[in-house]
Amino acid sequence: MNRxxxxxxxxxxxxxxxxAVAAVSGLKWKNGLEAVKPLSVEIERQTGDAPMQIQxxxxxxxxxxxxxxxxxxIPKLNMSLAIYHGTDEDELEKGVGHYAGSVLPGEADNCVxxxxxxxxxxxxxxxxxxxxxxxxxxxxxxxxxxxxVRIVDADDRTVIVPKPKATLTVSTCYPFRYVGPAPQxxxxxxxxxxxxS
Length: 197
Known about the structure:
- With 197 residues, this protein is α+β, with helices and mostly antiparallel strands.
- It folds into two domains: 1-31; 36-196, Beta Barrel (Sortase, Chain: A).
- It has three helices and eight strands, in the order ααββαββββββ.
- The chain has helices at 2-30, 39-47, 89-94, and strands at 68-74, 79-85, 96-98, 110-114, 132-137, 140-153, 167-174, 184-196.
- The chain has an eight-stranded mixed barrel with strand order 1-2-3-4-7-8-6-5.
- The longest helix has 29 residues, at 2-30.
- Residues 26-55 have low confidence and may be disordered.
- The active site is at 116 (proton donor/acceptor), 173 (acyl-thioester intermediate).
């Protein structure tokens, strides 16, 4: 009799553990905890290097992490999305994240934005070469034209490299309908074509 009780007890424990694991996994998936962070965040964690401090001529002071710095307007999708400084989960839950180690919108070099593929960037795959991206901040309105669409591996570091002129790099996980941590990134590379400071 004791053996039957012991087998039932262990069986119940295994079933409860399986349900708990499935529930936690389901919640993580549902809440979109797969962060869509620029690859530079992974580099920072691996190397221990903090993001470089960027001197800005357009912006009198560097924004604080979590602060809203502007909005990303995607005319083709008729969308306007809030941009927050930082790419941790707190910022990405609210909207588009701006990688703190990159320049601010409108400045020379590479401004990197990221967002979740299952929230703010659900339709980003519809945006392609020749489409416009408009960023509105306290420093002005900056219009970028997409010159290239790239699909890169999740560990590709070229997304964050410096650029010789004002560039906007927008990334999200790819494929868009992939279940679980996506193996690639969908990347839009756009050049500044006009600014209204």
